[in-house]
Amino acid sequence: MGRFLPMHVIKQYPPVVWVGLLGGAIIELTAGMIAPFLVLYLHDKLGGSVAMTMIVIGLQPFSEMILSIISGEVTDRFGRKRILVIALILQAAAMLGMSFAESVAAFALLYIVNGAGRSLYIPAERAIVADTVPPERQAEVFALFSTAGSVGAAIGPLLGLWIYRADPAFAFVCSALLLTMYAVAIRWKLQESLPTVAACDTISHHTQPLTMVSLRPIITMMLLTLPISLFYA
């Protein structure tokens, strides 16, 4: 990286930031590669059924909605780094499986797995940044993450269109490969940032347990966002 950026710039941020910038670009790049033709691809694979295509498209945000309620606790219990790797492997496996899937059931299952991976990834990424970056610089880092994601989102559709012309299924394979490379980078470059047992005990002692009453506004908001994916289809 020193070939492209001055060393004093690189040293401004811990490795988690640079890995996260690369990963944010990859995540949005893979999503952008798939987005332009995913609905049409599913429409063809599912025999032209618009209703089934909408149902499959809606499964991912629905699974994200369900699992995001517990993903934060899972991240705290098992570690940010471990959950990040697991989340990316789940997404990569789902993408690879979609390149071979033929039935409605297979696509539905794989889309749920992909949604599970995304719901685990986001809280773990936010948590590891919060653990390693000083509070006064976190807004700056998250802005950089957003910029990297926008770059990936801009390049992804063009790359996806080029791949789609050659072989639609190959876009899923490329996405799986990129996500796997990101998982390897996290496993190799990042250190675990899980809080100490004493810190976790202190937090849990001073934090009120979640109840259905406290979760009701959040669940309502998530349910209201679900139709957006169906309208997209």
Residue share in helices?
over 70%
Q: What best-fitting shape do the alpha-carbon axes yield?
A: globular
Secondary-structure element pattern, one letter each? HHHHHHHHHH
Gyration radius, in Å: 19 Å
Count of distinct strands: 0
Count of helix runs: 10
Strand-residue fraction? Answer: under 5%
Oligomer type: single chain
First CA to last CA: what distance? 40 Å
Helix-strand makeup class = mainly alpha
Main sheet specs: none
Instruction: Give the overall pLDDT as a whole number.
Output: 76
Low-confidence stretches: 1-6, 196-206
Question: Would you write up a description of this structure?
Answer:
This protein is an all-alpha fold and 233 residues long. The longest helix is centred in the middle third of the chain and has 32 residues. It has ten helices and no strands.
